[in-house]
TrEMBL record, chain A:
This is Transmembrane and coiled-coil domain-containing protein 6 isoform X2. Coiled coil: none annotated. SMART domains: ARM. Keywords: Membrane, Transmembrane. The keyword Secreted does not apply. It comes from Delphinapterus leucas (Beluga whale).
UniProtKB/TrEMBL annotation, chain B:
Residues 82-105, 109-130, 146-169 form the C2H2-type domain. This is Zinc finger protein 511 isoform X2. InterPro entries: ZNF511 (IPR039258), Znf_C2H2_type (IPR013087). Residues 1-25 are annotated as: Disordered. SMART domains: ZnF_C2H2.
Amino acid sequence: MWSRQRGRLKPLCCGVEELRCRRREREAALRKARREQQLVSKRLLRDEALEEAEEGCVAMIFGEAEIQQFLRLAQRGTEEKEREGALVSLRRGLQRPETQQTFIRLEGSIRTLVGLLTSNQALLQLEAARCLHELSHSEQSAVVEACLPATSYLLTYLSGHSSDFIELCLYTLGNLIVESEAVRRQLLPQGIVPALAACIQSPHLTVLEALGYALSQLLQAKEAPEKIIPSASTDSSVLGSTLPQHMLQLLQPGPKLNLGVAVEFAWCLHYIICSQVNNALLITQGALSTLGLLLLDLAGAVQRTEDAGLELLACPVFRCLSNLLTEAAAEAVGGQLQLRDERVVAALFILLQFLLQKQPSLLPEGLWLLNNLTANSPSFCTSLLSLDLIEPLLHLLSVSNVVLTVLCNVAEKGPAYCQRLWPGPLLSSLLDTLAFSDTEVVGQSLELLQLLFLYQPGAAQAFLQQSGLQALQRHEEVAQLQDRVHALQQTALHG
Amino acid sequence: MQLPPALHARLAGAPGSAEPLPVERDPAARTAPFRFAPRPVRFPREHDFFEEGDVQRHLYLQDVLTQVGGAPERPRVPEFTCQVAGCCQVFDALEDYEHHYHTLHRNVCSFCKRAFPSGHLLDTHILEWHDSLFQILAERQDMYQCLVEGCTEKFRTSRDRKEHLVMRHLYPVDFRFDKPRKSRGPVMPGAAEQVLAEAPGDDGVPSEVDAMEVCSEHVEPPPAPAGERRAYSHRIPSTICFGQGASRGFKRAKKRNKHQ
């Protein structure tokens, strides 16, 4: 069963329309960043407007004297509550960039904070960690890099047992990781990868989700394909660690599967796979099998619940499966049941239907998977036919011309396949697509027509009867299309 | 998009599939000008195809991260005391107690009562401080294990290990969990010189601490005659307040009960 952990979204004070508008702005900003390949950036990590709206009272700016006082009180106060309170006040203040700047410039401040972080007073430790967390969020490099003296301790604490504290350390580390390659160049030799590998055995879901986040940031780093993922790189290698096996375990469907955790590790897996470092290794560890089962589980979940967020998992699962299927090693394990199991195709279509309603922009990714499944698989092409999925597939023609590619995948396997494509809505759909001006789409339609003419007697005839020739005519002068148009005209007329 | 009604049932059914239809290709199929060939497609990391999904992913992350970091609402419970002998810390939230317990009582050395942040460090401590066999072996071979999880290097001395930690792993020189044991006498449990917050006028920098641990501040020092305390004064007291900028060691013995 899918257990959604604590809902993270608190009620907000702005109206629905404002929210929608805000979301569109955020999307636009992210899209721009993505195009500039700046998606993993500190600035985009938090939604500042959201934060301000939630704050209620805006944090004050503290000066040097105040900060010193808080620190002194935290360090040497007699009353525990007093000491804790001082750190809480400091933490609130550190939400302001001005206070952050003042803090890091104050001599001994970080040292004191690290001292409190490593103190024996549990609650002070927690608050000190929260202060560090605030600093780690800053957009100013100087502020973030001021946290560096604490990293060896953050990593040490990952082997502890206090789940809240570890979760905080992980999110802080995640922020530090994003900051710069320089920061990562310290974290890697300090053993962040083995520390994460040890920590991933934690039973706490909150810890696992935080770990997945931190790891996903590490794997997204520009230098990850060369320096972080490959097993050849000494102690900082992800593929050389036990992380992949644990990740796959956490993605196993079953009663323990948690959506928040699964989302993070599915994305981690995606970043590893699309870096194309050693996907064969992942396949031997059962990645294809696990992901296939997960796909089935996901399709089941989609039918059962209204749960927001399943598309967040569907997307990386599609990507991982699709990319893995291109590996030579995938062919070798093609004998595995999952890769011939027609339930995989059924699941994919259920998910496509779900996405059509929930997040149509992700449909191309699902269709990409369908292409990779059917390209070299008579088994999956047969499944498409035997499960009656051609008509639903045609419904998605307007979404992407990968639909045509998939149909070609089926048709090119010969007469037995084309027979099952005929008669039916296929012809009229093709006549529709021939009316498009997009050369790519028309080109694919021509390829499909050729296969149908070749393998299905009567297809050419039917085509002619439905004014197919006129449909072809409008493309006679188009450079990329003319040869094929003429060939088809010949075939249609003369057989 | 209408799906065939049998599809959902099929999903719930047993694994397997119908026998694949026979494949029979005509060579004319791939003759020019036609060029279709089925092929699985692969997209690398930065490909534009991933833009949409990536944007959705980051929108989600923004929502998640914006909620992280603030102190969560903790359900308050009636005050209760830590049940560990000698500890009188009071709590009104279970999560606070959890962290306290794990920090102070979980990885505790049964010989000298020092607490450690992890089982790994505790094990290393016991080995290096309380295992006489270790001392013997250490004279002849490299026994001091690197503290970084995953690093298998071993060293002849504690100092060599520290150098390795600093040079190879970029650890701070004053890493709190790697203080050498000063062997000026047997390490014995019980002697507790409780050195508390430092006197005013100090620069706030903790001086060299001999202990490799986190202390249990609330353990009451067992009574010991003044003479004995002096004898132990060079060693590491078993319970030291730690990480609060207090200076450690015998130098401060005179002031140690200031805040008692």
